[in-house]
Structure formats: structure tokens, C-alpha cells
Amino acid sequence: MTFDPKTIRQKFPILERKMNGHPLVYFDNASTTQKPLSVINAVSDYYKNHNANVHRGVHTLSQNSTDLYEGARKTVANFINADPKEIVFTSGTTEAINLVAMTFGRRNILKEDEMIISVAEHHSNLVPWQMLSALTGMTIRVIPVTDKGEFDIEAYKNLLSEKTRLVAITHMSNTLGTINPIKEIIKLAHENNTLVLIDGAQATPHINLDMQDLNADFYCFSGHKMYGPTGIGVLYGKDEILSEMIPYKGGGDMIERVTLERSDYKNSPYKFEAGTPNIAGAIGLAEAIKFLQETSLQEIQKHENELLEHATKELQKIEGIRIIGEAKNKGPVLSFTAHNPKTSASIHPYDIGTLLDKYGIAVRTGQHCTEPLMDYFKIPGTVRISFACYNTLEEIDTFIEALKKNLALLS
User: Fold this and answer.
1) Which of 89, 220, 289, 369 is deepest in the core (most CB within 10 A)?
2) Which run of H or E residues covers position 69?
């Protein structure tokens, strides 16, 4: 069956909306993707027909709910080639990284130790480590990027040392679109007896993942960036590492036995899932994975590369546009700044985004939760467009024409 974005669009009800009298052009997919009807229906069906708390209930509804929830865990595990006991459900990538920082980090990264991140990290893969550093006194080392926004592998090799306990790196930059050489990063770290956490929030909807092949120690991602619901995410961790980690939160369903004096915890992943989980979110995430598999990630990636190539070519034709992030290996993300070619005065990204919205075009403007990266490039922010499987070449042409009109107005 031929990949057809126009057919795929019919599965997304929101794309039928008009914004300010214009057909919606949704180019904010790196922030969150839209949801296919199959995901919406799966969440609705759960609340209509299966709603009950999971695990300890003996009644039929509870058993049905438990089967759906644990079935979702198996679907996630199969999607990334892992064992279900290595899949911890979280509220998203942010919580997954915080979980590792406040459990593994607090026990294993001491005052004399170091960890490595890059300057291109999302705040979610920076702030938790700063918080850990404040608690333990450990040192954070930072890898720069090149002028094109590529990971500096030589600088990374030079930073690795006997003090390095953890490397925490994004798989794909939410601002630059750069896809980092994750396998090489992990291999070098492991040769140094260092563990690796990968922030996969941006990569998961675009790249086939295989945890056995990647060999990451931790891998984190969010449902809402891969056509699933908000408020659900995943921490993958190797079983032998999760088994040694202490729980993140205490409460119901993560315990084996409780007395007034002490508590015995369940095995992973359950010891990390205190309280009533986001059952509907997990079911919706499983349905989103089915959508990705049925649509074919390989075909999606091919289509998104065509969109990226076309948008890049058209943006480069516009005088005054500067693309931020020109790595050879990129995902479907384009960030750019603009200036008046006559006066060289900068045009604020917010102004561009506001005027594009008048044409029904949704883009992201600002620092994209990567403020240190903006400081690194000495810019206040960018306009960011990001693509998904339902976007079309025609939408890019619509965006380019609207952008030209707006730049003429703002210059």
C-alpha cells in the first residue's frame, strides 16, 4: 500500500478545523503531535466500558482494566525490543529523567563524580541534573556542538574520564533537529564503565528503536509526541539496573507488604509506579504505537525527510533567513531566525509566529526549553517548524508564501 499523507490526514479529526478562516496547517509537532481517531476512541472506550482500578481488584472490570494496562506495557516493550519488566510508565519524558536522577543518581553519583550532557539538551535533561548536583556536589560537564549543530564527538571523548558516572544525551534535538550518533556515544561510554541515559522524546515517532541494538542503559520518551495522549510516558531501564534502584515515590500499589515499622517493595517496574496510574493514557499510547506500526515508521521517515528537504530548500531562497542547525543527519525539525535584509535589524520570532497564526499556520516560537543553546548561538530564540506523517508539501508551500508576506510586512 502506497504511503499517502492525504489519506492519513483523514484519520486526524482536528486537521479538518479551520483557524482564522484558513485550513489548519499544523507545524508544531515537536511540541506535541495530533491524535488519530483510533487513539481517541481507545481512550474513550476505556472510560465507557472498562473503567476500574488495576491490579488488586478481583472483580471483572478490574481484571479487564489490568489486562489492558499490562497489555499496553507489552506493546511498548515489543515496540522498542525490550522486556515488559524493563518498561516503567511515567507521566512523560520529564518524569522519567527525574526518576533516574533522584533514584539512581542520588545513590550512585557522589561529590567527587562527574556526569556529561550536551549544550543542546532540553531543560528536562538539564534541570534534574542541576538539582542532583546541588544535592550531591557532583560536577556536570558539557559537550559543545559545532556551528552546524552537530554533536562534537572529539570533545566528548576528551570529557570521558574515570570520574564519569553517567552520560545523559538527547537522541534528537528538539531545536536543531540533529540526530546524534547515539550508538557511538553509548559504546564509548560503556568502554569507560559509564552508564548512559538517552532522552528519546523527539526521536521515538521518527526512528525505529531497538534497545538490544542500541544498548542504552536508560531510554525515555513521551506518548504525546508520538500520536498518543498527554500525561503518559516511558522509562526503559535495563532490568539489572532497575532492580538495584530505590523507588521514586511511595504509596499504594508499589509495595509488597507494609507495617508501621517498614515497607517491602515490589519488583520493578511496579515499585516505580506508586498510586493509581494513567491507565487510559497507557492504553492510548499502545494504540498510538499500533498506528505507527500500521503506517510504517520507515515510510513515515522517508516522507518526513522529503518534507524537511523541501522546506529547507524553500527557506534558503528567502533573503534574511538563517537556519539554526544544519547537521547532515537531521530529523523533521527546522529552526530559523529572520532579519531585515535592508537594515540587518532582527525580526522577533514571536512577531512572525503571531502573523503566521492569522493564516491558520501553527508554529513554535521562542527558546524551545533550550535556553543554554540559544545563549550558545547568541540568539534570543527561533521560529521552529516541525513535521509529522500527516503534513504535506502543499502545506509547506502555503507556509512559505505566508512567511514571505509577513516578512515584507515586518521589514
Assistant:
1) 220
2) helix 60-79
* Residues 27-76 pLDDT 10s: 999 999 999 999 999 999 999 999 999 998 899 999 999 999 999 999 99
Is 329:145 a contact under the CB 8 Å cutoff?
no
Q: Is 111 exposed, middle or buried (0-12, 13-18, 19+ CB in 10 A)?
A: exposed
Residue 312 in 3-state DSSP?
Answer: helix
Query: Rounded to whole angstroms, how far apart are CA atoms 399 and 397?
Result: 5
Q: How many C-beta atoms lie closer than 10 Å to residue 327's C-beta?
A: 18
DSSP annotation of 266 reads P
Question: Is the dihedral angle over the CA atoms 99, 155, 175, 299 positive or is it negative?
Answer: negative
Helices within 268-363 (DSSP H only) = 279-295, 297-316, 349-358
Strands 195-199 and 218-222: parallel
**At 96, is the secondary structure helix, strand, or coil?**
helix
Question: Residues 6 or more apart from 157 whose CB is under 8 A from it?
Answer: 188
CATH number of 39-294: 3.40.640.10
- CB-based burial, 390-411: b 16+ in 10 Å, e otherwise: bbbeebbebbbebbeebbeeee
Cell readout for 230 is 498527554
Q: Which segments of the chain belong to CATH 3.90.1150.10?
A: 5-31+296-410
**How is domain 5-31+296-410 classified at the CATH fold level?**
Aspartate Aminotransferase, domain 1 (3.90.1150)
Please state, as a whole number, how many other Cβ atoms lie within 10 Å of the Cβ of residue 77.
18
Q: Is the peptide bond before 372 cis (omega within 30 degrees of 0)?
A: no
pLDDT, tens only, 312-356:
999 999 999 999 999 999 999 999 999 998 898 999 999 999 999
Which active-site residues does the annotation give? 369
